Amino acid sequence: MANEDLISVDYEIFGRVQGVFFRKYTQAEGKKLGLVGWVQNTGAGTVQGQLQGPRSKVKEMQVWLKSTGSPKSNITKAEFKNEKTVNSLEHSTFNILK
C-alpha cells in the first residue's frame, strides 16, 4: 500500500441525503477508511465534498457513497469528477462543512 497512488476526487450525491445524518455517516466512513476531505449540504438539496487518500480506499468510499450512505438516506445518483493523482494530502482530517 505504500506504493499506492494518492488521489483526490470531488463528489455530489443526489436523493434523500439531507436531514438523514448523511454528512455524519460520510465523515465516519471516511475516517474509518483513513481518508481526508470534506462533506457539506448544498442549497440544491444534495451533498457534495471531496475525498483524498490511497486509490483503493477512495474507490471503496465511492462505492459506499453510491450504494450505502446513512441508514435513512435514499441515494438516487452519485457523481464523481475531477479525479487526479496528488503528491500529498491537502486536508488533515475529514470535516463536515456548514
End-to-end distance: 33 Å
Rg calc: 13 Å
* Strand order of the biggest β-sheet: 4-1-3-2-5
Number of strands: 5
Largest sheet: 5 strands, mixed
Task: Label the overall shape.
Answer: globular
**Range of strand content:** 35-45%
User: What letter string, H or E per element, gives the SSE order?
Assistant: EHEEHEE
**Count of helices?**
2
Q: Which range best describes the helical content: under 10%, 10-25%, 25-40%, 40-55%, 55-70% or over 70%?
A: 10-25%
Low-confidence stretches: none
State the secondary-structure class: alpha+beta
Mean pLDDT: 96
Catalytic activity: an acyl phosphate + H2O = a carboxylate + phosphate + H(+)
Keywords: Hydrolase
Active site: 23, 41
Organism: Sander lucioperca
What are the defining features of this structure?
98 residues, alpha+beta, five-stranded mixed β-sheet, 2 helices, 24% helix, hydrolase, acylphosphatase activity, EC 3.6.1.7, Acylphosphatase
